[in-house]
Amino acid sequence: MHKNSQKRYYIRGAVYFITTVTKERYKYFCDEIFVHVLVEQIYFAQQLLQFQLYAYAIMPDHVHVLIQPHDGYNYSKIMFSIKKQFSHNANRVMGYNPFPDYENDEMNIKLQHYRDKFLKKYPSTCPYPRFLWQKSFHDHIIQNNHDFHNHVGYILHQNKKHGTHGVIWVE
User: Which CATH number fits domain 16-170: 3.30.70.1290, 3.40.50.10330, 2.40.50.140, 3.40.50.150?
Assistant: First the structure.
């Protein structure tokens, strides 16, 4: 185990509040294109990995999600999937990663659309460095209904707390 690794506790049926941060807190999510790509990735992962999504907040440099994994995938695998695929997709949109020639699925069609919007917005040079997340993420096991509602409230108040116009969704 890596010396900085957190000990993860997997409890069947538990709900988790998770926070993940961009590398060096770079504010990629001030750009709505990256917000849209991340939202697409969250919902794609939800369909693929079958977890309950209760809420999320996308702030300029970090993301909060409130999820409940179902059988088959724990929250570490869910976050790995979301973070890895979003990184690839964001870097495709910025032109750092190529689009695979053989893939013409719905996600790649959407990504090509975002790439076109990105090129219209930034026609000459990409203003962003390659997208990376900070290693790992912070997690909290929801203890009871009161704790659940506190964390939903925390997500709802992220814009006020950070003085930004992040994207917030609550089921």
Answer: 3.30.70.1290
